[in-house]
Amino acid sequence: MIYTRRNVNTLTRAERRRFVAAVLEVKRRGEYDEFVRTHIAYNSSDGEHRLRTAHMAPSFLPWHRKLLFEFEQALRRVDASVTVPYWDWTRDRSPHSVPWTDDLLGGTGRRSDRQVMTGPFAYRAGHWKITENVTDVPYLTRDLGRPARPFDLPTGRDLDSALADPVYDTWPWNSESTRGFRNRLEGWGSGRGSASWLNHNRVHHWVGGVMLSAASPNDPVFWLHHSFVDLQWTRWQLRHPGHRYLPALPPGPRDPQHGRIVARDERLPPWNVTPAQLEDMSGIYRYE
User: Fold this and answer.
1) Domain enclosing residue 139, as ranges
2) Total Cβ atoms within 10 A of residue 231
């Protein structure tokens, strides 16, 4: 049966409680930390001369689609009524709006150490200890909007600039690709500081705290953010029918990206699945 992912701001109080309870149970079972470890393990950059799958590569979208789907299945094993809602950061743009409520994700971190003190994922609530991290800090951190040097979340116009590009991705298939939907959405821009943070990347910087690191799934907003990013891939496909994941074939041996990116029909580590097999999920879930 096809299930639905909804905008988080449409969830009822009961639906919020069920979502939070499922996330906490997946954490209690030890499964949640496995997802964090996977994200850390596959967080390689342009400068590393090895296969890139999660970031700075064409497979950014299918890789996160698969991770998100596997996480959602873990939630649904706890409560079959739960799906991963999406956070539309082009509309809910305030640190005081959904999803930053006390009954959902809690708010920003305190000024002294960025520790989140409210909501079910606050360390002091006793259910959310961070054990898989790039630092030794055991508590969730955020710095919503960076008050010391504030900047805004991406706008609808920013997002549309990515959706308007009819080509999925272009050479050199990394953070320096100046054309292509994938990099425009992933958000590796030119310039310095906040001006270079676009769309997906800009949201990670706006949330701050642990969302700035390879251990970003430690903040449950990671899943709501990537649910919205995943929705954009679906919208792009509807806007540009017939345009598919690129590259279709792996780069040749003389190409600097040889052996460093995943082509359409190649296996996408760590799973036994290809980007082509992840292009259409309409038989499993849809967005409302």
Assistant:
1) 3-287
2) 16
Structure pTM? 0.98
**Which domain CATH number covers 216?**
1.10.1280.10
Q: What angle do CA 241, 284, 230 make, to 5 degrees?
A: 55
Checking if the pLDDT of 46 tops 90, the result is: no
Of 47-56, 81-90, 235-244, minimum mean pLDDT range: 47-56
Q: 38 near 47, Cβ under 8 Å? A: no
Cα–Cα distance, 262 to 246 (Å, whole number)? 9
List, in sequence order, the alpha helices (H) in 29-148. Answer: 31-41, 60-78
Looking at residue 250, the DSSP 8-state letter turns out to be: P
Note the pLDDT of residue 14. 98
Beta bridge partners of residue 188, listed in sequence order: 197
Please work out, in degrees rounded to the nearest 5, the angle formed at the alpha carbon of residue 204 by the alpha carbons of 199 and 209: 165
Tens-place pLDDT, residues 176-202: 999 999 999 999 998 888 889 999 999
pLDDT at 44: 87
Look at the chain and report how many structural domains it folds into: 1
Q: What is the DSSP string of 143-197?
A: -TT-TTS--PPPPHHHHHHHHT--SS--TT-STT--SSHHHHHHTB-SSSGGGGB
Query: How far from the centroid of its chain's Cα atoms is residue 70's Cα?
Result: 13
For 58, 77, 216, the CA distances from 186, given in Å and listed in that order, are 10, 30, 15
